[in-house]
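Quick question: who can interpret this fold?

. . .
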Amino acid sequence: MNTILLTGNTRLFPADALSYFNTAQSVFVADRSREGDKAKAPDNIRFFSVNSSDSDFTKIFEAGRISAVWYISRCTDGGKTVDETDRIEAVLQCCARYGVRRMIVVTELTDPVDYRHLIGKWSRPENGMQSVGLSVVCVPLMSGTDAKRSRLGHIFRVMKKKKTLFLRGEAGSPVAILTLRELCSLLLRMTSETWFRPGVYSATGNVTSLENLREVLMSCRPDGQIEFTGPESGRNSGELRSSAAVRLPSLEKSGLDGRLEEMYSLPVMIDWKEDITLQYSRMVDESTEALPFKEKVSAYLGRFGWFATTILDLVIMFVIAEFLARITSDSVYFKIVDVRLLYVVLMGMMHGLAAGTTAAVLECVMLVIRYSEIGISGLLLFYNVENWIPFVYYLTTGVICGYTHRKNQQKMRFVSAENELIRNKYLFLNDAYRTSVRDKNELRAQVLSEDESYRKLYEAVRSMSQRTPEAVCVEAVQVLRKLLENGTVCIYQVDKRGERAQLLSCCRENATRNQIRIADFPEMIKALEKGGTWRNTGFLEGAPMYAELVSFDRFLEEKNNVSNRITLLVTVEQAAPEQLSLWYINHFSILCGLLQEALENASLRERVYK
């Protein structure tokens, strides 16, 4: 199974948007900040807690066969504009090393990276490295992304605070809006197509005006205040700084190689107005939803991580240790037990070097305070070396216990990473084994079918050996539909100009049209003019799945030796998924060649009988 690697600013695709990928499509998400999304993701999505700048990033390429890499830049959808050339080059080097031929970068026009240089550099790399096709997609205003960190999320927050929102531009200024689902569909088409064109392209989406965008935003929150910063507004810079001004992505097309919508037809069209409304509703629901106390505590700990837990343990255990030290100081049974030293050991072994050192410093401070309470001054404490012993014990114990904890953590992390790598290799080998078994079964079925192939071809030639070409065509339609196991096989007669092809009367059954305008399919014309078989690998709408030209000479006047060149177009209008194979195409080409031989023999036979 081919896999897509999603890296960079993967927050552009929130957990809900990962369901846009087909269940048959495997996706690897490399982002350390996406650990919490594992429970929400479908089964075909796997998360790796590494970033593209980490040394363990290359292990992802060993976990499965990656067909393409999607890199999301930080400036996408209103992010911070930074130069990410080094990170992109590191990903390109991994692609060249592990045989990934395609990489797609999603960014905006404000990105400072020189992508033209990278495209030229990796199309012909030096040092004998494999070439990698780099395609850059510049996106406009996005809808359907994460409402908290996106450009629309910023607009929603300003409207919710009842501030005046300024959209930079005039009311009639054009603005492009692309939904996240449309972007995902375009990127999947770029990944799955057999051809791939490196370059810098734009994904324009739906082009509207700022006034229409303002109306949609006002429908989400009628009490909002939205104005424009065009020349007619008369707003000064100080007033704009006191409010919120938003600059939307530009529609500038200079320097781009084209639009993705012109290269790939969108299979999914989403209403951007409804998408923005749903995004605002989700943000409001998340902010107003009341969480129970347990979930609030879990959210707090998840947000601040181990740091909050460590501080909490340090404070609570410090109070307990001091309390126990004071109430047991006069007890005979606790003369040989140092509660403070036990506290330092616990913090070092539980939370590491920093917590152990901090606990030791805290106990040293408390020890100084206790010495001062019994009359030992700081000067006497400093010059009497014997008083240093408890401080040395505390600090040494904290450092040793913290170092031991860190070393054990590193060992556990190494073992976990090694187990994960072994598991990924097992999954890859298991997938390869299943693929080889499936290919073996298919090959066995094809070999067994070869026993009957000669008999079928002989029957086809014998049944098409008729007296006239018309009779051959009538019989050929039935033979082709039977042998190809497809009821949509049709034969058309091409006119002299080669512009139209008219359906023969013997093919009316199961036919969906009476003629084909050949000029509407220039790619099919190029393939047929070269004498080959047309294969609709791009799934062009209206075009047959397979087509091939069959031509023969038919004599009209025997005395003057006048003949007419007749060209027929044999097509398979629709094909099942199991018929999209090289074996099926070769079978179709062989039968078309037999049909041409039968038509030429029938024409000669007709001439002799005349």
